[in-house]
Structure formats: structure tokens, C-alpha cells
Specification:
Its cofactor is FAD. Residues 121-211 form the Acyl-CoA oxidase/dehydrogenase middle domain. This protein has 376 residues and is α+β, with helices and mostly antiparallel strands. It has three domains: 3-113, Orthogonal Bundle (Butyryl-Coa Dehydrogenase, subunit A, domain 1), CATH 1.10.540.10; 119-222, Butyryl-CoA Dehydrogenase, subunit A, domain 2; 226-374, Butyryl-CoA Dehydrogenase, subunit A, domain 3 (Up-down Bundle), CATH 1.20.140. Helices cover 52% and strands 15% of the residues. Helix 1 (3-34) crosses helix 3 (66-77) and helix 7 (225-261) runs parallel beside helix 9 (307-332). The two termini are 30 Å apart. The mean pLDDT is 94.
Length: 376
């Protein structure tokens, strides 16, 4: 990366850091406690054009590259993971940008890019999430359009989003991707889930009960959806890894601040050797994860042969770091870390799901091993 590029990215990161501290952090505790979308931060994000970051200018976006999307996700998650997840969820529409018709792009992308509408995607189903190609949701041609039947589970922004990207079976060995609007006949939503963490991000079932959509809502070839979704998951794993990294960095920030200010036996506890060792280990986990994530992003942006392996490496390292670092941050706070008055309690709860979604870390390890053997 050239020095001019590094400087530009650093300026972008600095502006996001200020935004996160001024407009996101003050509402993080309330968003979690009240289990509501971060409306204050979303309104403020419109002024910066953050909803349009992943999209091309021709569709109302700002042509942000993958690294700028990763930085945005990381810096927002550093103070509020639910807000980061909600504001940066536009990447779920990457397939529409690359494979959708011009008419579909105008109908879906432009209003999402300008912040007028919101998007979600439906992959996971009740019988499993890791076996994506075993999806039982079906899409069949009907009356010049499509009829969708099935249930999608644990859908982020369900009931709150306007557009839903649905992955469905279109034949014995084929899948397609379809755009469903919340006002289409036959779509309904389950109850909002009462979650351990990410409580400011609504999650519910999306139920397609003979949901009828018009022709043109299919994304590209309705028999090549599996091919499209694999590519989309590649980028989304990097974004989710950045999300986990932001949580880890935020917990480290809080731990440093607390241990400097908390005194025991006449001195700041930051002076105690055992605590300094814990902090050092936390820094090692965060920086190692960051290095692999940024390498993975660079590989993806430049079409490197190891890009897919590094995406899995980054997802595992960043999410494992998030869980470990938040746990240690709570420990360093002592009894105070167990109270909701301190952000590390929320961060620890938010961190857990990063090891589960977007391909569990067990599945990612299988993919990493597969790539390792293939390289021999």
C-alpha cells in the first residue's frame, strides 16, 4: 500500500473514530438495554453517507472499497457492536450490484444506499445454518413470476428491513437468489428473539408462505445462486471479522482505561505484573487478528490465490480474539465488570455470536484444513 493510500485510509479512520465516540457511544447502553435499533446513530450516519459506502456512485453510493468498509465496521463495533451491524449491513446486497438487472438495482440499491430503505438477507434455516446448500426454501415459477415457500431463521433486521435477499432452491441441484419486499403478499415475520447480545439489532424468522413476487426479482441466473452466494460470503466473512475485531479493540480500550484509573494497595492496578501480562496477551490477540484480517482484505482486493483461505483465517482469529479479549476485560474490571454499568459486560455478550454466525468457527477450521491439504 502506498503512503498516500495509508494516509487517506488513516484520515477516514480518524473521522469514523470521532463519529463513533460522538454519535454512537453515548447511545450504546440504551440501545442494548431497550433492545431497540440505534436510530440516533443511524440518523447521524446519513450525514456521512455511511449507508451508501459499499455501493457504486451510479446507484447513489460512494464507491467505498472493501478496506474502507472493513474500517467502518471495525470502528463502529469498537463502541457498539449492534450499531455497527445495523449501519453497515448494506454489503448483503453485493450480489444485486454484480448480477441484478438494472431495474432491480434501481429499485433496491438506490433507496438503500441513500438510507431511505433497509436490507437484510435470508440464508439460515431452522434445520441448520452451516449446510447452506441444503436449503429447503423453494422458489418456483408461477404466473410469470415466482412463488417462494419456506422459513429463514435468525435473520438480522427481520421485520425492520424493507428488502430481503432470499436464497432458495430452484431445482434438485440448483439455487437462486431473490429479492422479496416486506409488502409482498405471503411474507410475514416471527417474534423478535430475546438474545444474549447484539440486542440493538432485531432478529426474527422470515416466513415465506406462498410469497408471490413478480418476474425480474431474481438476481442473475436463478440456477446460479449457489455460485453467487459463495462469492458474497467471501466478502461478508471479512466484514464480520472486522466486526469482531472492533469488539475486541473496544474491550481492550476499556480495560486499559479502567486499569489505569483503578487503585488498589496505593497504586493503579495497571502497575501489577500479572495484570500487565494479561493486557499484553490481549494486545497480542488483537494485533495478530488485525494483521491477518488486513492481509485477507488485501488478498481479496487483488485476487490472490489464497484469498479464500485468508478470509476463513481472519474470521476465526478475529472472533476468537473478541471472545477471549472481552472475557479478560471483564476479569480486569473485577466485580464491576459483571455490572451493566460498564461497557465490557455488553461487549462480552456481543462477542459470543461472532464465533457462531457467518459460518461457525468449527466450519471455518474445516475450510482452512481443506485449503492446507490442497496446497500440498
Amino acid at each position: 500500500m502506498r503512503s498516500s493510500e495509508r494516509s487517506s485510509y488513516q484520515e477516514f479512520r480518524d473521522s469514523l473514530r470521532r463519529f463513533a465516540l460522538d454519535k454512537v457511544a453515548p447511545h450504546a447502553a440504551a440501545v442494548d438495554k431497550e433492545s431497540r435499533p440505534p436510530v440516533e446513530a443511524i440518523d447521524a450516519a446519513l450525514a456521512l453517507g455511511l449507508p451508501g459506502l459499499p455501493f457504486p456512485e451510479r446507484l447513489g453510493g460512494s464507491d467505498g472499497d472493501l478496506f474502507s468498509q472493513v474500517i467502518t465496521t471495525e470502528e463502529l463495533a469498537r463502541v457498539c457492536a449492534a450499531t455497527s451491524l445495523t449501519i453497515t449491513s448494506g454489503w448483503v446486497l453485493e450480489g444485486v450490484v454484480h448480477h441484478g438487472s438494472r431495474e432491480l438495482q434501481e429499485a433496491v440499491i438506490r433507496p438503500v444506499a441513500t438510507g431511505r430503505l433497509r436490507a437484510a438477507w435470508g440464508l439460515t434455516e431452522p434445520q441448520g445454518g452451516s449446510n447452506l446448500m441444503g436449503a429447503r426454501t423453494q422458489a418456483k415459477p408461477s404466473g410469470g413470476g415466482w412463488l417462494l415457500r419456506g422459513t429463514k431463521r435468525f435473520i438480522t433486521n427481520a421485520g425492520w428491513a424493507d428488502w430481503y435477499l432470499i436464497f432458495a432452491s430452484t431445482g434438485p441441484k440448483s439455487h437462486g437468489i431473490f429479492m422479496v419486499h416486506r409488502d409482498d403478499p405471503g411474507i410475514r415475520f416471527g417474534k423478535l428473539e430475546d438474545k444474549m447480545g447484539m440486542r440493538g439489532s432485531p432478529t426474527a424468522d422470515v416466513i415465506l408462505d406462498d410469497c408471490r413476487i413478480p418476474a425480474g426479482r431474481e438476481v442473475g441466473d436463478p440456477e446460479r445462486g449457489a455460485e453467487y452466494i459463495v462469492e458474497m460470503l467471501h466478502n461478508s466473512r471479512l466484514t464480520i471479522a472486522a466486526h469482531a475485531l472492533g469488539i475486541a479493540q473496544g474491550a481492550l480500550d476499556e480495560a486499559l482505561h479502567y486499569t489505569r484509573s483503578r487503585e488498589q494497595f496505593g497504586q493503579a492496578i495497571a502497575k501489577f505484573q500479572l495484570l500487565r501480562g494479561m493486557v499484553a496477551d490481549m494486545v497480542l490477540k488483537v494485533e495478530a487478528a488485525r494483521s491477518v484480517l488486513y492481509q485477507a482484505v488485501d488478498h481479496r482486493m487483488h485476487g490472490h490465490a489464497d484469498a479464500r483461505k485468508y478470509a476463513s483465517l481472519a474470521k476465526v482469529l478475529c472472533s476468537d480474539a473478541a471472545m477471549a479479549v472481552t472475557t479478560d476485560a471483564v476479569q480486569l474490571h473485577g466485580g464491576y465488570g459483571f455490572l451493566r454499568d460498564y461497557p465490557v459486560e455488553r461487549m462480552m455478550r456481543d462477542a459470543k455470536v461472532t464465533q457462531i454466525w457467518e459460518g461457525t468457527n468449527q466450519i471455518q477450521r474445516l475450510l482452512i484444513a481443506k485449503e492446507a491439504y490442497a496446497g500440498q
